Amino acid sequence: MEWNGNLASGAPDAEFGKLVVEIPKKHGDGAARFYEKGLVLEKKRLPYSGIKDVLLVAATPGPQFTLKQAARDMGVLWIYPKKGATIGLREINYQFDNTIMEKIKQGLGF
What is the 3-state secondary structure (H, E, C) of the chain? Predict the structure, then answer.
């Protein structure tokens, strides 16, 4: 993963190398961790060579008055692996920042 910003502070992963970016969950423990060579999300481990595509649906700023508006305006970073189920980092679960998500997408080469 190419990354021009500051590296996250955290322990390196034996398989994937140095921690590059960490996206913490909004509630509870856990985070999406992007390392030099792979992604760790809860119990899922995915090397970047196993990613087919990445799509960013940017979050729309502003007030949401209904659940329908909140769902429509929610940001999601979709990660499509070559094998297995699609992974979605949703704004409702993770501390979502459009700029950082765009940098992650570009850093992965998509």
Answer: CCCCCCCCCCCCECCCECEEEEEEECCCCCEEEEECCEEEECCEEEEHHHEEEEEEECCCCCCCCCHHHHHHHCCEEEEEECCCCCEEEECCCECCCHHHHHHHHHHCCC
> What's the pLDDT score for residue 40?
95
Rounded to the nearest 10 degrees, how much is the dihedral formed by the CA atoms of 80, 20, 94, 15? 60
Report the amino acid identity of residue 20: V
Provide the token pair at 92.
């409702």
| pTM of the predicted structure, to 2 decimals | 0.84
| In a domain? residue 2 | no
Domain assignment of residue 7, yes or no: no
Amino acid at 26: K
Total tally of structural domains belonging to the chain: 1
Domain ranges, residue 93: 19-107
pLDDT, residue 58, reads: 85
72 within a domain of the structure (yes/no): yes
